[in-house]
Amino acid sequence: MKIVSWNINSVRFRIDIVQRFLREADPDILCLQETKVIDADFPADAFRSLGYGHVLIHGQRMHHGVAIISRVPIAEDDRLDWQANREARHIGVRLPPSAQFPGGVRLENVYVPAGGDVPDREVNPKFGQKLDFVERMTRWSESLACPTLLMGDFNIAPLPEDVWSHKQLLGVVSHTPIEVAALERLRLSNSWVDLGRHFHPAPARLHTWWSYRAREWSLSDRGRRLDHQWATADVAASAVAHRVFEDCRGWLKPSDHVPIMTEFAW
Description:
Blueprint: E1 2-7, H1 15-25, E2 29-33, H2 44-48, E3 54-58, E4 66-70, E5 75-78, E6 90-94, E7 106-111, H3 125-142, E8 148-153, H4 166-169, H5 177-188, E9 193-194, H6 195-199, E10 209-210, H7 217-220, E11 223-224, E12 227-231, H8 233-236, E13 239-244, E14 260-264
Parallel strand pairs: 1-2, 7-8
Antiparallel strand pairs: 1-14, 2-4, 3-4, 5-6, 6-7, 8-12, 9-12, 10-11, 13-14
Helix pairs in contact: 3-5
């Protein structure tokens, strides 16, 4: 079972590279964030034509939006309002039963707010909304009692090795100590396993995002690891590989994020 997470930054504008990726990487499930489209206009037929017959979407005009596209049946469509303002930032499903997990595995796809530019909730309300979002996720996680995968664009690079310069980015939203501490509380709330770092331990370089502001993104390589796949310990034990598709950042009309994929022995 191969499961991918990708902030696509407008699924309709980038549908060509999404289809190319599906053909080349051949995942079973694709979790998208920042789809930027209402449900009625989501390009579901483009996925069904490639054999992805199960499409669940939670869209919003021009902003946010998440979707789960799958070859295997998915059920229990949940949409949690961790932003507390009805923005389309979460969709969750249950995957089919397997030998290891007779009750199936929960799959939660989330798009955490970016948080604006100033790391001060008094000056920048968006930063406060981001911290509150992660806190609500933490309260949810504390009572979680089933095998679960949590993935998406967390908009936080937690480790010093998750950014191109720890020293220069300490005051930049996505890598500030207050955000890192909030994400660590979330991780510890259910002993989540960070699958990226499980397979590629620090200090290995591991980036998933490069700004559009850098014309020669691959040469400057000022990346950050903002995209994550976490698993409860029981699910993490069945993970066999994790890959970051860095080459996708250089494709025609790319997202500023690249896909990440974990393979499970189910």
